[in-house]
Amino acid sequence: MSVEKTPLTDPEEAKLAKRDAMKEAGLSPYPHHFKRNAMAADLQKKYKELQNGAETEDTVSVAGRVMAVRNSGMFIDLMDTSGRIQVFCHADSMSEDELAKLKFLDIGDIIDATGTIRRTPRGELSIRAVSFNILTKSTLPLPDKYHGLTDIEQRYRQRYIDLIMNEDSRDTLRKRSQIISFIRKFMEDRGAIEVETPVLHPIMGGASARPFVTHHNALSSDFFLRVAPELYLKRLIVGGMADKVFEIGRLFRNEGISIKHNPEYTSIEGYEAYMDYNDIMKVIEECVYQAVLHIHGKDTITIGENEVCFKTPWKRISMVDAVTEKSGIDFMAFNTAEQAYQAAADYGLKLDPKLNWGQIVEEMFDACVEPTLIQPTHITDHPHDISPLAKIHRNNPRLVERFESFCNGWEICNAYTELNDPDIQLANFEGQVAQKESGDDEAQMLDDDFVTALRYGLPPTGGYGIGIDRLVMLLTNSHNIRDVICFPTLKPKAQSSSAPRIAAADNDNNEVWQSIDENQKRFVVVVNGKEESQGRILNAVGHAVAGLVGQAETPEDFCFVDYQDADGNIHPSISHYPVIALKAKNSSQLKTAREKAIAEGVLFTDFTDTMTIGKTKEQVEATKEKKTAELDFLALCLFGERDKLNEITKKFSLYK
RNA sequence: GACUGCGUAGCUCAGUCGGUAGAGCAACUGACUUUUAAUCAGUGGGUCGAGGGUUCGAAUCCCUCCGCGGUCACCA
Question: Are A427 and A194 in contact (CB under 8 A)?
Fold first, then answer.
């Protein structure tokens, strides 16, 4: 079936052969030294006026990657980080020894070239090479030189290939650096200092989001990767480290990936003492405006289908007024959620009737205002209901002093006059804790020490947060957040799976289990949803569970408790760990889960159709006759660490 | 998570009604030598994502799984 590739026609083999040939000729394919004194773009600029066909005596050395070779090596397109220039290799100006090196050359190699500047009669600025060297031999083929690399997954997974082939990718990611650098300098120039606060948070706070959890072994403690730096930055303001602090860094949110969301993303968050949200508004719009000028050299740029002008001052309008403007409904006139709900329903919105006034205003805003905010606009004075971290508005207790800046229909900045009353902050935290206890895993935790810090006194402070990735998307007209992140989060490539060996997996288990917290374990029974006979299912479950318990080598892995009733009768050996019953769509899903259990070293048993008929002898034989894939799985029983089992069984629904 | 589309050579893509797997680039051999996606002649290169099914016969039809994209939902 598999035919061996003819060595010299496989691109990689051919390149390896040339590399070996270089070595035999006494040339290193990876020399240590390099020399260059010019960049392609500088030369293109400097010799812009050079006439077609003109030769100069100016000698330069360039270095870069070979992107194309024409006329058997006479013309080489060389690309460095600044741009491209053609290298002209001709017997008129090169020795035989130099020309001989061409036979080692491939597209993709990194070379240097030294020679004189000329412009060919066809108008291409070139270096008439006297010598050249292969500085790094490339041994894998580059994508199609014309179409480039279009496979989206490969562009992100192997960004280096994308960068080699795609000018747009290089440009966008370089602009990202420029934008971040600009913002940093802008903030520093106005007296703010950049600080670094922990990424590992013992207490999750500062934003409502689902966190990543990790574990510090020596401290025997779980930590959360930060979802926001807010509470630490405010502590620095309390301490008077500076009146203005900011942090540019990565935040982590354990949520879905989309065209506008990456699990780790970059924000700038800052706090400035003795400022309120009106002051911050001016700072933000000036910063973004200057960034646009810096990157584009003009204040109006194309984003998608729109021309967007960033000239300051930006339009300001309160959230309620903006809703009134678009819908004709004045929500300030409604004092109850019921009235607001009715008005929104009349307008045509389908809402959860349990929403409060502020949430209804927000829903109206999202529906009829947000998409229309193409030109930069500050939306101000949000309902208090939806802004637990902002200070109550000085003129209206239903509102807070908050603004969000929108552009192209996206939010790019969120800012408040910060809440600095410790008692209100404590009450807000307690509300969050109550939500967490009722099952909201995005709710924040009570940070006692932060409240304590507020009791020492946080001066009147304005704060802001900008999502850098989204800002870069706007300023580079990028459609997907992954285009502005060098290495976006991707599902790890599946490891090449050799046939799993159960015995080996079991040995591993013994060690793993000893370190697992007892509270983290559970039983999971998954049954085949296609099986209609309840009797067969129950039989299968019974077998699977009994088998699983019988299989355990160390009884301490389980925890069974004797329950006693009012009459003093004992109900022995009830599992301390929960037993979860799930339903799979079919046998094949059970088979897949079983393979995952083996790969993960999770204790398991399964039960198949071949185990239902006859006595053990017949069943053993019937099972032996079938390949794994041919077996019809009725039930799968697992026991182990909760998180691990969740990973294996997450696609199954609860059996009801 | 739901819906939807895609997966064929190293890269970019064809493949009709189910009937021997195709092209361009890249690679190899040679020609040519001021080219610009160089050109010309020839050569080699395939587990058609994986597994199963239907069929005399499957890249093609059916089922399952895997991977990726897009839209929607939550979030910035």
Answer: no
In chain A, which residues from 400 to 419 place their CB closer than 7 Å to nucleic acid strand B?
411, 414
The 3-state secondary structure of A282-310 reads: HHHHHHHHHHHHHHHCCCEEEECCEEEEC
pLDDT tens across A230-242, in order? 999 999 999 999 9
Residue A518 has pLDDT above 70, yes or no: no
CA distances from A567 to A562, A563, A570, A575 (A): 14, 12, 9, 21
Q: Is A60 within 8 Å of A117 (Cβ atoms)? A: yes
Asked if the Cβ of residue A139 lies within 7 A of any atom of strand B, the reply is: no
- What are the strands of the beta sheet with A244-252, ordered from one edge? A193-194, A244-252, A264-273, A461-467, A410-417, A402-407, A377-380, A315-318
Q: Which residue has the tokens 């800002």?
A: A471
pTM above 0.80, yes or no: no
Contact between A106 and A61 (Cβ < 8 Å)? no
A309-315 CB contacts, 8 Å cutoff, 24+ apart:
A309/A375, A309/A376, A310/A285, A310/A376, A310/A407, A312/A282, A312/A285, A312/A286, A313/A282, A313/A285, A314/A281, A314/A285, A314/A375, A314/A376, A314/A377, A314/A378, A314/A405, A315/A375, A315/A376, A315/A377, A315/A378
| pLDDT number for residue A495 | 46
DSSP assignment string, A203-261? S--SS--PPPEEEETTTTEEEEE-S--HHHHHHHHHHTS-SEEEEEEEEE--S--BTTB
Query: From CA A307, how far away is CA A654, in angstroms rounded?
Result: 50
- Return the percent helix, strand and coil in chain A, to nearest 5: 40, 25, 35
**Joined tokens for residue A638:** 């697992």
Chain-centroid distance, C-alpha A442: 18
Q: CB of A225 under 7 A from strand B?
A: no
Task: Please report, rounded to whole angstroms, the spatial distance between the CA atom of protein residue A147 and the C1' atom of nucleotide B23.
Answer: 15
Gyration radius of chain A's alpha carbons: 33
pLDDT (average), residues A571-599? 76
Q: For strand B, is any atom closer than 7 Å to the CB of A595?
A: no
Residues 456-475 of A with CB under 7 A from strand B: 467, 469-470
Per-residue DSSP letters for A587-625?
HHHHHHHHHHHHHHT-EEEEEEGGGSSS-HHHHHHHHHH
CA distances from A446 to A426, A451, A452, A477 (A): 8, 9, 12, 40
Rounded-to-integer distance, Cα A78 and Cα A72, Å: 15
Q: Under DSSP, is residue A531 helix (H, G, I), strand (E, B) or coil?
A: coil
How do residues A601-641 score in pLDDT, each as one tens digit?
Answer: 778 888 888 887 777 777 887 787 777 777 788 888 888 77
Taking the C-alpha atoms of residue A636 and residue A638, their distance in angstroms, rounded to an integer, is 7
* pLDDT at res. A562: 65
SS3 per-residue string spanning A322-367: HHHHHHCCCHHHCCCHHHHHHHHHHHCCCCCCCCCHHHHHHHHHHH
The number of beta carbons lying within 10 Å of the beta carbon of residue A152 is 11
